[in-house]
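As promised in the previous annual report, we have extended the structural survey to additional targets. Below is the entry for HNH nuclease domain-containing protein.
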Amino acid sequence: MAAEIKTWTDRDRLLVLSLYCRLTFGQLHRGRPEVIRLAEQMGRSANSVAMKLSNYASLDPEVLALGKKGLSGASHQDRLLWQRFIAEPEAVASECEETWSNLGEEVALPGVEVDYTGQDAASIQKRRVGQSLFRKAVMIRYDTRCVITGLRHEDLLIASHIVPWQARPECRLDPANGLCLNALHDRAFDKGLLAIDGRGCIRISPELAEEGLIGQLKEQLSDIDGQPLKLTDSVFPNRDYLDWHFRECYRR
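The corresponding structure token record, generated without further manual editing, is:
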């Protein structure tokens, strides 16, 4: 007698989308510990979850931009959820967070434990799901390119919050509160040594100029002062968020 086929529910799809945004393309396989753990909690095979992850990859413009592709065969409902994630990333991210947190602490993935701040595992897990979804939305928004250098390599790019995660909770999942930056410029932005002014131009802190940078560091930092971001005409980060960062973080 053939095994009964288990129907995919909206909840199932949200759970797998949550995991998809936490993993890299090369981790979307049935042997990955996170895939096995989620599959057990969903009452599915690891192969089934891995295939759904690869279905999402086939719809992901970030994956396509990097010259990769997932498994064809995404269902109509998969496509609808993905389209809604592109159109309403904040709303879908919130649904994913809520769905994941409802699974309980027993599904916390490897390395997620209670930390020294006193946050419980469920709270940490929810935050990390949100951060992962935020990163995916930011990468899609900026075509997986650093907005300063144009660099395109997923392992060297970071979805930087303009207004930090803890500062204004209401905007922490908004992709317009993000910048796609390489690791060096992300660090400089985070430390207030780099900012974006109201014209969309890069500002480098005088502190760096005083360091007398030479060679490649000079080219990558002090020499880019005043240059515009590398953006498409249709995409720009939220100016209110940029103003907040310029006012509150930039070290003049």
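Residues 111 and 240 are 35 Å apart (CA to CA). The chain has eleven helices and four strands. These points will be discussed at the next consortium meeting with the crystallography subgroup.
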